[in-house]
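Quick one, T. Sequence first:
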Amino acid sequence: MAQSPEEWYKSLPPFTKVYGTAVFATTAAISFGLIDPRYLILDTDAVFRHFEIWRLVTCFFVFGKFSMSFLFQMFILVRYCSLLEKHNSFENRTADFAYFVFFEVVCLLVLGMLVGGVPILGPSFVFAFLYVWSKRDPMVPMSMFGFLFQSFHWPWVLLAFSVLIGGSIVLDLFGIAVGHFFYFLKDILPVQYGYNLLKTPSFLFSYFPSRATVGNNFTAGTTAAAPPRFTAFQGRGMQLGAR
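Structure tokens:
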């Protein structure tokens, strides 16, 4: 039986729910002229000369106005942030997930400032989630317009589709780069070279205690089930253009 919108919303994991709601509210405020996005975007001069430090956070909530590109980015946010947040590598590991989010934010801010001319980082942030999920669940079957892919190809497929509907290839590539940097440091380096440079700081476990998971018993090597979603998101993978 299909879920109601309220049930679907309540079923989202905490970070995805809060971040998705903040992004939607910010986009609505910008679209209806309630907020001037120029006061929210990343502006290095404003941050360091005028101490407008809120921009270091608000630039992750700006996705422009309501558009097809925004709807596509929201789909990625809700779908793949949920999948990664509920993946067995982060499920019931709130401190590890918080450290991952912090790492992605810091890396994107540094990258955005070094490159310059990158006023918003929300789409990059979302694409980083997608990329890390695709690496940790690489063999999930996906489809688009009747073409079949494995999930480790999926970020590149969605990158191409994003460009076709007017998205920024630069922002998406930023997300892929930072997502791969995390994946290399966290999943490859410790296994192949014996160095764990991204060990979660112990003090985070005091602020972010592990959550007990009701009805889900994950073991190493298993994959978390996909989060409940609207019927428009159902099916095997993401079937855009399917009849």
